[in-house]
């Protein structure tokens, strides 16, 4: 471990080593690479890290998944050494205790874990806010104006990860447009939209897939749309538009449910994801019609199916790239990221490819 750590320090160089930055591998507790890779990716999403560390400095709270995450992030951020290894034991133990889905030695899906973690943090924050209101520590604590079924205030997790899509239907008979907003990147309990699921075609790029995301489809024959205006089923154009872009855009798509196989199969074909991404095609009332994003982290899946194989994380830190493979940390070339686009052909199912992409907005 010492040799690996000092090699990394030498490679970065004492002058180049970012001030107050620490690169620590995480010990694998038996198939916990799905968790380690997501934690590393989130640690290098700066807005998220800052909020978690700020949470740590609040008065002591009873232990939950967020306090354990804050302790882990704090422990990395305050290490005397610049590089090394940390066992995230307290966090993993808590995770296993809270959700039996993760409490076994099977390989878990990194995306399910990310979804669970962010939703749990949001729930914890909302519950704390509710308690504070009841204890009269927050303004507007009068209970009567609190409509119980109104949506709870957004938390900082929502502020970082949540975007809004508008689902537009235009009736081709009367031309009436109806639109409905949907949030993505944070859950409403029945639908966990923690990320934009993008349908990826072979040999394509994420930019292209995102464009396709807002293509117009025609609803016809048995899929006709019920138009309120015409009071009957009509042919219609359906289109998704992005209304609000999040601060951090988490894109995920690498396994597809194959009906004929009755299981999730890995999509190992090649999809190019750029180091920077510009998003537009947003609806007319969009708050920020276009935004530039930089790739800050990628959770990479190596192997053939979501519950088999191995996960690693590639992160960007102060203009260089690092690869975190459980307790191993290496500096890599930006060019090396191309190796994780997936295969040009689907010959070998055992490929390494980007599975969750984290893009951070520049503004």
TrEMBL record:
EC number(s) stated in the UniProt entry for this protein: 3.4.19.12
Key words, A-Z: Hydrolase, Metal-binding, Protease, Thiol protease, Ubl conjugation pathway, Zinc
InterPro entries per record: Papain-like_cys_pep_sf, Peptidase_C19, Peptidase_C19_UCH, USP, USP_CS
Record-level Gene Ontology MF annotations: cysteine-type deubiquitinase activity; metal ion binding
Catalyzed reactions: Thiol-dependent hydrolysis of ester, thioester, amide, peptide and isopeptide bonds formed by the C-terminal Gly of ubiquitin (a 76-residue protein attached to proteins as an intracellular targeting signal)
Superkingdom of origin: Eukaryota
Compositional bias annotation for Polar residues: 142-152
CDD domains given in the database record: Peptidase_C19G
Name used for this protein in its record: ubiquitinyl hydrolase 1
